[in-house]
Amino acid sequence: MKKYFIIIVVFGLLFSSCSNSNNEPSNVNGELKGNLSISGAFALYPLAVKWGEEFKKENPGVNLDISAGGAGKGMTDVLSGMVDIGMVSRDISQEEMEKGAFGISVTIDAVVPTINSNNPLIGDINSKGLTKEAFQKIFIGNNIKTWGEVLNNNSKESIKIYTRSDAAGAPEVWAKYLGKKQEDLTGVGVFGDPGIANAVKSDKNGIGYNNIAFAYDVSTRKPISGLTVAPIDINENGMIDKEEDFYSNLDSLVKAIAGGKYPSPPARALYFVTKGKTDNIVVKEFIKWILTKGQAYVLPSGYIKLQDTEIESNLNKIK
Hints:
The chain is of the alpha/beta class. The chain folds into two domains: 29-109 and 269-317, 3-Layer(aba) Sandwich (D-Maltodextrin-Binding Protein, domain 2); 110-267, D-Maltodextrin-Binding Protein, domain 2 (3-Layer(aba) Sandwich), CATH 3.40.190.10. The protein is 37% helix and 21% strand. It contains twelve helices and ten strands. The chain has helices spanning 2-23, 45-58, 71-79, 94-98, 122-128, 132-139, 147-151, 169-177, 192-201, 250-258, 281-291, 308-317, and strands spanning 26-28, 31-40, 62-68, 85-88, 101-116, 160-164, 188-190, 206-211, 227-229, 267-275. The radius of gyration is 23 Å and the shape is elongated. The chain starts with a helix and ends with a helix.
């Protein structure tokens, strides 16, 4: 009987050890193992996928599940414990922080106004640009109905407005730039960044807004086929001056954002959010990797690197 008891106990310990190694995050002799789930902002999704691919090359024992669904979903999922990390493309509210939201900024990008590249008045739009006031009149209350009203000419071409139907960072940031909130934006509601991009590409008179990762092709560095970024007449002098003309390719826009030439708040930080300060070793090591080695993939992916002081501050936050 004693022999059988010893065998059963040993078998139980071995089974427990195997179970823990498969399911619980660990770092044994520098080898990370565990599962990592991420959901949220479309704005961060392309870069998060790239980070995940590169991180897994160095840490094959980590399984990553990354999905997009909007910043609102990312925040809801992480606070409810459904995922380890929520991707959020807007500021974290005080109410969310009181619920446990712990944010780490990982990169910077921007929301840009997008129009159809076959718009009948594309030449005038590119040369004159649109002022902040014009965007307010288009997106808030739909007080401008035609492109002629925007450009001060006789064109009767109607404006077709597209906005996000899901709670997300892009519409909240765009609305904040216009002095309002997401619910104040007018237009046909479309789900997600790809949804707005496709809607505008399919409508010659369409106008919307997109995170830059969905407005530019990261391979060609040019605007996505069928889309054009509507230039903002920042100084409101009725024309796009040389210092305002940085939309032709992704690199010039990124440089303008990094240099503070593009308006804020459309230029904003993007966050990884955990519920409380995480003690999950896999999550911590992934975020540390992003803030160090992972920054090498930021610019090629069409995003803006964090300042060194911000990186150091974030690393200290997760120690």
